[in-house]
Amino acid sequence: MSKLGNIGARLYRGEVGYDFIGKRKIWYGISILITITAIVGLAVRGLNMGIEFSGGAVFTTPKTSVSATEAEHKAEAAAEGHQATVQKLGNGGLRIQISELDTQQSLPVQEALAKDLDVPVKDINTQLVGPSWGEEIANKAWLGLGIFMILVVIYLAIAFEWRMALAALIALIHDLTITVGVYALVGFEVTPGTVIGLLTILGYSLYDTVVVFDSLKEASKDIGKQTRFTYSELANRSINSTLVRSINTTVVALLPVAGLLFVGGGVLGAGMLNDISLALFVGLAAGAYSSIFIATPLVADFKERDPAMKALAKRVRAKRAAAAAKADAPEQQETAQDAGDEDLPQDAESDEDAAGSMVGQRNQPASRNRGRGRPSGKRR
């Protein structure tokens, strides 16, 4: 934990970091690939709409020894071809959903199920849902989603700027598409619990995005008055400074949701827990990914098209080029001097030393005491 905290502090101070913005084309490619897979799964398999949306009947039975697969075949035979979905409950009972079943058909099906499953008829709880009610729920869900999107865009445009609002909207659509595509691929039933989960993940998805945007807004204040960083570099520093925080909040949020999905839904067989927890689990993971790899790089792309940011990037590059040239100049001078000394011929050096020696002898003053003590040469 101390190492993680140390890394987080170094990321926050900008001592270390990963170039998220520089590799944004890779993240875009991964997101496009995942989104296309989700759309294809949605188009091919479609959504398994619950009876709350399609209408039908729900039969809840007491504890029985009949397996879910066997009960599904018996339910479809009793309902004369209507599609049935069977789920094993934690108490050993079954939850049997038969779509497009009206009130007149439900009573014979209930009696047939009681006979096939060897349980009393009075112990089978029957709930009927009309298709009109399901359509009303679907319309309200779409309306709520649309209102939420509009309010989010307006708020982000006021609190930050329109580029950030647009990037956040694209990230939200990205998260919703992936979540819905996963539902189609795994075949989970879409219920009102699913809608609740989808609306909930929108807030979680925006949380990390807003944290990074707030850091970027603070870092880019008076950005035109400096020539150290471009906007993309400041965006990258903002991601790195909030990276550990985003990871921590995402992991803490995913752990209880994973408990709901794998323990509550898988072990205990709780039906609605599956619907809510799958949407939350996929949405939280996709939201954490999009806030780091999609939303902020998109803001950097949008912002770098601004003429002011283009001029800033040009000034930053010019300053760095000048600094690099200034740093290289003494090295080049020293290298040239060394090269000049090395290029000097050895014979020339010898001649120069010899000449210096001769000049030294020529300029040596004659001794004034020369000849003293010698005979004058006069003959006596």
- Rg, nearest Å: 40 Å
Integer count of domains = 2
Overall pLDDT score: 78
CATH superfamily label of the largest domain: Multidrug efflux transporter AcrB transmembrane domain
**Beta-strand proportion:** 5-15%
Q: What CATH architecture of the largest domain do you see?
A: Up-down Bundle
Distance between the termini: 115 Å
Q: What's the number of helices? A: 12
The ordered string of helix (H) and strand (E) elements is HHEHEHEEHEHHEHHHHH
Report low-confidence residues grouped into runs of 5 or more: 342-380
CATH class of the largest domain: Mainly Alpha
Overall morphology: elongated
Approximately how much helix is present in the residues?
Answer: over 70%
Structure description:
With 380 residues, the protein is an alpha+beta fold. It folds into 2 domains: 2-49 and 133-315, Multidrug efflux transporter AcrB transmembrane fold (Up-down Bundle); 56-129, Reverse transcriptase/Diguanylate cyclase domain (Alpha-Beta Plaits), CATH 3.30.70.270. Helix content is 71%, strand content 7%. The protein is built from 12 helices and 6 strands. The strands form 2 sheets. A 4-stranded antiparallel beta sheet has the order 3-4-2-5. A two-stranded parallel ribbon has the order 1-6. A hairpin with a 5-residue loop joins β3 (84-88) and β4 (94-99). It is elongated, with a radius of gyration of 40 Å. The N and C termini lie far apart (115 Å).
